Task: structure prediction
Amino acid sequence: MSNFVVVAAMWRVNIISFRKEQTMSTAISTPYRYDVVGSFLRPKRLHDARERFEAGNIGKEELASVEDAAITELVAKEKAAGLHVITDGEFRRATWHLDFMWQLGGVSHQKTHTGLPFHGEQAMIDDTFLTGKICPAAHHSFVDHFRFTNSLSDATTVAKQTIPAPAQTFAQFAMPFALSNTRKYYKTDQDLIDDIAVAYRVVIDELYQAGCRNLQFDDCTWPMTVDKSAPEMWDTDEAGLRKVREKLLCANNLVLEGLPADLTVNTHICRGNFHSTYACSGPYDDVADYVLAREHVHAFFLEFDDERSGGFAPLAKVPEDKLVVLGLITTKSAALEDKDAVIARISQAKAYVPLRRLCLSPQCGFASCEIGNKLTEDQQWAKVRLVRDIAKEVWGE
Result:
């Protein structure tokens, strides 16, 4: 019997006995009619503090104090902008995904010499690789991060926690560039997926016990299978890409299986977001039968800010019990969208998904990595307000 089967059985038995810490708000769930993906531009004092920390000039406690103050100020701004879903802006992370992975057993990292190829710029984020089999963290710091954010929620707001999708962690170690090292520890992809599922379940258990009822998987893997360079990226042909998609779906759904009924899990799908550049292009058509039709999340935050995302027709694959959050406001540009043009696109989307099942957000975070995108904080908040104003006009709420 695999480790996953044993742990999954224990999970189901123990669901009813979870210790539930008091949450600040239970009346609001995600996605809200107007929402955000999660990350925000870091203020200068936070950038400065991290530089001093990395240079050894301040310790962890002083850095955490600066982070706490910056997050407290951020949440106040989120509330002032009318948001009902709050996040910590991912202010305690270097990247949206790798910081989570680095705390899992069997995962290590080092400064990169080459970075990742984005269009127009190399993303200089750490090389991340296996040094053993993946196992749960003794205690994942993201749980403490959530507790702090949750303490800032109130009767009109709810805190959500963002983490990379299980498929994202699978891809990190299963893509051809990493596979020779990964095969030292895993003979098959399914063995890797099983261990990732065990590690994720433990973190989600901790988050749930800490009061988290709104979780978001961030997932760039699906566009990586439809980009024109996908066969080269995955070292396979179209038939092989279909097998990759089944594995990505398995990685996500294995973690989603049997979670507590009152835990909302949504997913956000994008094509890469680093310093206003992107990694992939391609419509949802070839992945709709996998992720949109069959992934067991409550809602899909989908990037639709430019032609790289294709049209809305794949939304017809989304089951009737799931919501779609249209990412029509770009975070990659400072230019503020035309309200009427956005409303016209919402009207186009409702040909495939009824308006009552649609929501609105920016297409991605404003700072998926700490470098942030190329706009100012004022421009960032103008976009958040635009999302709110359009939603109120379209849905009357």
In short: The mean pLDDT is 91.
